[in-house]
Specification:
Chain A is of the alpha+beta class and about 240 residues long. Helices cover about 40% and strands about 20% of the residues of chain A. Chain B folds into 3 domains: about 1-40 and about 190-240; about 40-190, no CATH class; about 255-345, Ubiquitin-like (UB roll), CATH 3.10.20. In chain B, helix 1 runs antiparallel to helix 5. The mean pLDDT of chain B is about 90. The chains are: A alpha+beta (about 240), B alpha+beta (about 350).
Chain lengths: ~240, ~350
């Protein structure tokens, strides 16, 4: 029998189905892992209430009233002693009425009854502030004073600060400013994880910015991959109906 | 694998459009002008501090005393707390901001009373004051069109829980400035640039109720289904890779193979690429094998007959019967040239 080679005479017609299947298959080979990362990190961020993530449940935010408190040191005396004082606030520190204000970049804490300088606060007072505000039951496991090189979770502008770690679920930490005596940071493992999760979500592995080139490339091709997926879905559903 | 593919299909049917919206809005966040999106084009950043005449100041202690007296004389014995008194300024007027209820953040519900720091007289932020405060923070070319009172929340700053005054300007960006009623605090500037970006955030967070967060029921549900979509897709991709479906056609060799019809009669030869699946390879040679799914291994209609020794994968196990497999029936979209010398077309 005669052998005959079937020759390609015309190009096969363009098939949208085949083209989209190839596009989806090949794009997802490179983007698939990032789609999983996007959905897992996105799910984490939406599943946990953002106020919980921000540690709002870690502190009582006690309202200590100043009415009937002894405030014998006058604001006039304060301004004469510290002419550069800014943002002067009469509030409370533990149970005492105090003046808090700024001189340049520095916080100053004064006893509002005696005018005595309280800043920087002692370790004992820092612990007392943390215990007064902390909502949990756990004991304190460690106390340290941070004066430089703050961890990622603490803004450098609030230094120096006492770091107080509690022995509770999700390893809560309260940061108490050593100069103002205020709570300046509250963290637990879910927030610490959230920070990383966010960076993975926006594909930022350097400085927490959304406008990086990596995200540009992945979201651009991701759009193509997603669109091709939707076209495939259309084919799959319409064929089902035809059969 | 059938279950995996089914889940992938149904999950994409439910969340597919939203996934595209997530990708599109995410792409927009990557490209957008972040300075414009803040809405602060016409905002003056630093306020001129007033010179305080120390001798004219009334003492915060006097304010506490006054409150203490009032509480004592009050028939209802209602106690009012004062959490803090802050020396501040309203335009050029020194004031004390008395905070009766201090929330964790300024945008959470707070309670304030303002008094003149010289006279002790109460200061109310009315529409006129709000307009002056707003204009003191504004450097744009517009004039004030109107001032309106918003009891709770506003669309430009959905997180703000306190009552605000909204001051609208007639500049080209439709700037709106928000002033907190209780404290006179500048909540922020908004304009059409910010609103445009906020629209995309609203879409990305599925925050249709403008709650100012991304914890709504609808997004939790969609995120949950999307997890199923991506994880099944991931497994599917691995399955394709294990089946050798990812092969580059470049650098691969072409070889001729004999074609037979149903009755095992020769039809001739075609030249196929070793790295192209048989369905695609035959289609390129104008030999049309029926396929509904386009090579996904989900419809089972692209059957061909190879030798019984040809490898069998999961898709073929699901779409072909045991006896068919034993005879050498396979799905052309799942097979490659490999060692095959003849291909029998059955349809």
């Amino acid at each position: 029998m005669q052998k005959e080679v079937i020759k390609q005479t015309t190009k096969p017609p363009f098939s949208l189905l085949k083209a989209t299947r190839k596009t989806h298959k090949w794009l997802m080979l490179f983007l698939g892992v990032q789609f999983v990362i996007w959905s897992v990190t996105g799910a984490y961020m939406v599943f946990f209430n953002i106020d919980y993530i921000h540690g709002d449940t870690l502190v009582k935010n006690q309202q200590v009233s100043l009415v009937d408190a002894n405030v014998n040191f006058s604001i006039k005396a304060l301004l004469r002693q510290y002419p550069l004082a800014k943002k002067i606030e009469l509030s409370s520190f533990l149970t005492k009425p105090v003046y808090r204000f700024k001189v340049g970049e520095d916080n100053v804490l004064l006893d509002a009854n005696s005018g005595r300088l309280l800043s920087p606060i002692t370790k004992i007072d820092a612990v007392a502030v943390a215990q007064q505000e902390y909502t949990g039951e756990g004991d304190i496991v460690s106390i340290s004073l941070i004066t430089e090189n703050p961890p990622f979770e603490l803004r450098a502008s609030v230094l120096p600060a006492w770091r107080i770690n509690f022995d509770d679920f999700a390893e809560p930490t309260l940061y108490v400013s050593a100069t103002s005596g205020k709570i300046v940071g509250k963290r637990h493992e879910f927030w610490r994880l959230f920070d990383w999760i966010f960076r993975f979500h926006v594909m930022d592995y350097q400085d927490s910015e959304v406008d990086n080139n990596l995200l540009f490339t992945f979201s651009f091709f991701g759009l193509l991959a997603g669109l091709s997926g939707l076209i495939l879905l259309y084919f799959r559903l319409s064929n089902k109906r035809a059969q | 694998m059938t279950a995996i593919k089914k889940i992938h299909k149904w999950a994409s049917l439910i969340v597919g459009l939203q996934v595209l919206i997530w990708l599109g809005s995410g792409f927009y966040f990557n490209l957008m002008d972040h300075t414009k999106a803040k809405g602060t084009q016409y905002r003056i950043s630093n306020v001129q501090p007033v010179n305080i005449e120390i001798e004219r100041l009334i003492e915060p202690e006097a304010l506490l005393k006054k409150q203490s007296e009032q509480s004592k004389n009050d028939q209802n014995k209602s106690t009012i707390t004062i959490v803090s008194i802050t020396l501040s300024q309203l335009l050029s007027q020194p004031i004390y901001v008395i905070n009766q209820n201090r929330a964790l953040y300024p945008h959470f519900l707070n309670e304030y009373t303002l008094v003149d720091a010289y006279s002790g007289k109460e200061v109310i932020i009315d529409a006129e004051k709000a307009e002056k405060l707003a204009s003191a923070s504004y450097k744009g070319p517009g004039e004030v069109i109107n001032v309106s009172f918003l009891e709770n929340g506003n669309d430009d700053f959905p997180k703000e829980q306190n009552a605000t005054w909204r001051v609208n300007y007639d500049d080209e960006l439709n700037t709106s400035i928000y002033i907190e009623v209780g404290s006179g605090r500048l909540v922020g500037h908004s304009n059409d640039d910010k609103r445009f970006a906020d629209f995309f955030f609203m879409l990305h967070f599925m925050d249709y109720g403008m709650e100012g967060n991304f914890n709504s029921v609808q997004i939790i549900l969609f995120a949950f289904i999307t997890l199923w979509l991506t994880l099944t897709g991931f497994i599917w991709t691995i399955e394709l890779a294990l089946n050798g479906q990812y092969q580059f056609t470049l650098f691969s060799k072409n070889r001729a193979v004999k074609l037979l019809n149903k009755k095992q009669q020769p039809l001739g030869e075609v030249i196929l690429n070793a790295h192209t699946n048989l369905l695609d390879g035959l289609t390129e040679n104008n030999i049309n094998i029926p396929s509904v799914c386009g090579g996904g291994g989900t419809c089972g209609s692209c059957r061909i007959l190879l030798s019984p020794a040809a490898p069998i994968n999961q898709a073929e196990r699901e779409k072909l019967s045991v006896s068919q497999l034993k005879k050498g029936y396979r799905l052309s979209c799942q097979q490659f040239l490999a060692g095959n010398k003849t291909i029998t077309l059955v349809n």
